[in-house]
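Pasting as-is:
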Amino acid sequence: MTASADRRPPAGAPENPLDLLIVGAGISGIDLAHHVRNAFPHWSWEVHDAQDDLGGTWHTFRYPGIRSDSDMATFGFPFRPWPHSSTLGQGEEIKEYIRDTARECGVLERLHLGSWIRNADWHGEKGLWKVTSVRTENGTTSERTVWTRRLHFGAGYYSHSAGFRPDFPGEEAFAGEIIHPQHWPENVEYAGRKFIVIGSGATAVTLVPALEQLGAEVTMLQRTPSYVAPLPEKDIISAVWKRVLPTQAAYRAARFTHGARDMAQYIVAQRFPWAFKQGLRTLQGRYISRAQINEHFTPSYKPWDQRVCKAPDGDIFRAIQRGARVVTGHIDTFTERGIRLRSGVELEADVIVSATGLELEAFGGGTLSIDGRELKPEDLTTYRGMMLGGVPNLSFTVGYVNASWTLRADMVSRYMVKLWRAGEKNGEKIYAPIPPQEKGDRPLLDLDAGYVRRGVHKFPRQGTARPWTYVQNYLAEIPELTFGDQRRDMAFDAQIPQEAVR
């Protein structure tokens, strides 16, 4: 090492800024890190995550049976085939898959765990982001300031520190234990104990068969039914492609086939809901009676107004066959022994699980500002669902809500890499979408789910037309994000209007 290299300021100092800081070490952040490592081997970059380990969702959630609710052919990284034969991935398997990928692309050497990004402030004069990282270790809080040319949030859209937990009437009277799936305790006893799972979404649909397999007496208590679709436990599509194509080509073909199938199902569900419902009822009828389907698995809303839950090999229906119960009704009050419904029926429980959803959180719960002026996310307009109008050198990942998150996350990563490559080629250091004249009022997450309705006001809005919108359609976005004009409605360096960055 030369003397001049010894005197160089540390990476992240204002005189030696990072080229990129990635917030989030889950699927989105690791996907982007892989592409950055390959495209810019000369860059200085770091990954920060507020949790004490990488994995994102797959580190936060540890309840029994935790699994993906998208097939792993599309939920996995497109550049690293899912190594298992299962259609859905188990939580621990997914976390180790993320860790292996992070190790391969050099993230582990650049990973800062327990690092919460409290604020990111764009300094227009320097053309840099000043990022404040907060760490708490052994009761001691410390701060670190990191300067970076580009900032990307791959931290998802919900709070990892707290799930949504309503106050239930009379809950103080309950003599047993109340658990939220986001904070599952260790050493829970299952065999012979009575569990009530409140909820009807993917978490509840996953927990019920898992708890039943562990020997618990399980009741799923839902206010309204959800659509639950049985699917093969083994990934038949991937298996077929592997027979006729080499491994990597087979993985790409399976990924596209799964993605196209899901989009086709979504279109059918939205345009011809009667056909989707009938097909689903036929599949469910292999396991449970028509009366059970009518009472507990026939929602009042259209398919895909909320996510359709997945049941590999119909596991929740098999659990019902073996004695698990589904009760549809409204809670009147908790009692000492369980829950009393408005109908007067009382359900006994030793443990009540509040599978009541997420708390939404934009940009990891931190704040954004420009030259010290704090930005309100809800006042900003998204550009292609990955940048913000008038905000320089900032991007973020939002996946699909009606299909696999990673399908879109990887397209966002590739899009940003192409934008950064063009910037280096053209000598452009600063980029920002020019804010549209007309602000839209469409939410960023366009899904009629309870957790979205509660918190979507915290997020930027979509505009009225492309590129200020993003559509929930993988097939429609492939040409736009892969081949679209990346300079459309964008400004660079001196072209950026000053009012956009004040």
